[in-house]
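input
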Amino acid sequence: MRHMEGTVHGFLVLRSTEGRVLAVGDLFQVVRRDRVTSRLLFRFKDGSVDDETAVFSQRANFQLITDHHIQKGPSFPQPMDLSIDVPSGQITVRSTGKDGKEEVKSEHMDLPPDLANGLILVIAKNIQPETPETKVSMVVAGPRPRLVKVAISPHGEEPFSLAGSHRKAMHFVLKIELGGVAGIVAPLIGKAPPEIQIWIIGGIAPAFVREEGPLYQGGPIWTIQLTSPVWPDLPRSGF
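output
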C-alpha cells in the first residue's frame, strides 16, 4: 500500500465500442478507521444492473474481507450473484433455477491473502510504473467458482486531455491466467479470456481514468470512464 483510500463519490459512464452510452455508474467509498467499504454500481438503460461491494482493510497492505458482486438484466446473459467471505473462506453463488426458484450453492476455498475481487483499481493505483509485473488472485464465477491469477503489467504513459489541458495516464494491461489444464486448452479452443486495459493518472493522488474490456466471460468490450455532471443552462438575467 502506497496510497491510502479515502471517502469518494465518483461518477462514471459505460459505453459500447461505437461510443453509445449504455450505463451510468456511481462509485461510493467510505472509510471507518482502517476499514474501507467500496461500492461500484452501474445502472443500464435496459434495466440491467452491475453492483459490486467490497470491504477491505488498509494497513501495510490492502486485505479483502468480503465481496458481493451482482450482475442481472438483459445485458448479462448469465446473471451472477457471487459472495465471498475471506476470513471463513466461504463462497456463495445464488442463481435462479429452471423452475424460477432461487438456488444457493456454497463451498469452502482456501483463499490467498492477495485476493483482489473488487480491488483491482485500488491495486493499480498503487503499482510503481517501473514494476514489470504484479500478480494477484481472483475468484471468478462460472458453473462453479474457481481461483485464477491476474497479471498486471505497465505499458507506458499515454496522452489524454482534460477540458483542453494535456495530461498523461499510465496504461496497465490485465491478463487472466487460468492455470492448470484449462490454461493450456483455452487458447487452443479460442476461449482464453481477453486482456483488460486500465489507465491510471499518477502523481501524489493517483486516480482511475479509463477501462476497456468485458464485464463478464465472453462479453463485449465496453469502455468505462470518469464523467462530470452537466448543468442545464441558467436563465439569462434581465439586466
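quick obs: The CA atoms of residues 66 and 85 lie 5 Å apart.
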